[in-house]
Design a protein that fits this description.
By secondary structure, the protein is an alpha/beta fold. The protein has ten helices and twelve strands. The longest helix is centred in the middle third of the chain and has 18 residues. The two termini are 22 Å apart.
Length: 311
């Protein structure tokens, strides 16, 4: 991505891997800088599953194709997120003779002293130090300008759906927890009851992690709805949904999805079944509740507002 910047602007790399949450956080920060940046795509091999204590500062966890895309001239700054990018960022700094500054989102684990700034969410207890910046939630790219533009693009397509339009953002199973069909049915029922009782409609989007249980969710919806499954072809309405939202319901399994939902200053409700949500994510939800940015999901839509969340 290239923006109009001074000729002597710093060379910035974004290390973008295959985890959507990591990627969206990095891109959000890079775009907010207003400087040009280059994206380096990272794909991982079998060694990426090894602990970072073994990988050290290296490209060992990358595929050969990804390693080939990392070559001098080395950047002045690297923006990355997540554990698997940390060895890569550290090795870039080493190859640059220490000149490259490293800006990491979420604690990288071993070798954290190599990073110039680490943005760590408040609910994550890992790590303290002079290079730690505590934040609420996850950085994202849902700026007001982006939401307004997306709303203009999708407004006519969805104009026949009655208001209030309630966006339903559905995640799914994680490494530690399974999003079961019973949870999907409960979520679909609560969302549909909220829309029907308010005389409104649902804008539903699933994710890669939702999997086959999306059908269990959709069978519970009897409110007017526009539905976008993750596997559907065509334009993705996600930004447009948020831009047009009168309220948002989001599953609590993703810090990024919850943070993007709270970027819109409308009622936000988090579905947080105890069988789905880890203790770390529950701490995050409680922070959002205490700050007035979100509420636990029930079938009732109340009128309230909050400041947009943008870490």
């Amino acid at each position: 991505m290239a923006l109009d910047c001074p000729i002597n602007a710093p060379r910035i790399w974004v290390l973008a891997d295959d985890r959507a949450g990591n990627r969206s956080q990095c891109m959000g920060v890079a775009q907010a800088l207003g400087l040009s940046f280059e994206t380096r795509e990272l794909r991982y091999g079998i060694l990426a599953g090894f602990p970072n204590t073994l990988l050290g500062a290296s490209f060992a966890g990358l595929t050969a194709t990804s390693r080939a895309g990392l070559s001098p001239p080395w950047p002045e700054a690297v923006i990355a997120a997540g554990r698997r990018t940390a060895p890569v960022a550290r090795y870039i700094k080493r190859l640059s003779g220490g000149r490259t500054k490293l800006f990491q989102i979420m604690h990288p684990g071993p070798g954290s002293s190599d990073f110039d700034l680490i943005a760590v969410p408040n609910h994550d207890s890992a790590g303290e130090g002079a290079n730690i910046l505590r934040i609420t939630g996850a950085p994202h790219a849902m700026t007001n300008t982006r939401l307004v533009e997306a709303a203009a693009e999708w407004g006519q397509r969805l104009e026949n759906l009655p208001r209030p339009r309630i966006v339903l953002i559905v995640g799914g199973s994680t490494r530690n927890r399974r999003f079961r069909a019973s949870m999907a049915r409960e979520l679909g029922r609560l969302a549909s009851e909220m829309a029907v009782s308010a005389g409104g409609s649902l804008l539903v989007t699933t994710s890669r992690r939702t999997g086959d249980v999306s059908e269990a969710l959709l069978t519970e919806i009897d409110a007017p709805a526009h539905i976008h499954r993750w596997e559907d072809s065509g334009d993705n309405p996600y930004d447009g949904y948020l831009g047009l939202a009168d309220a948002v319901i989001v599953t609590g399994d993703s810090m990024s999805m919850c943070s993007e939902a709270c970027a819109v200053p409308v009622p936000v409700y988090i579905y947080g079944s105890r069988a789905l949500i880890t203790a770390k994510h529950r701490r995050f939800h409680e922070e959002l509740f205490q700050l007035g940015l979100a509420r636990p999901l029930n079938a009732r839509l109340d009128e309230w507002t909050h400041p947009p969340l943008n870490a």
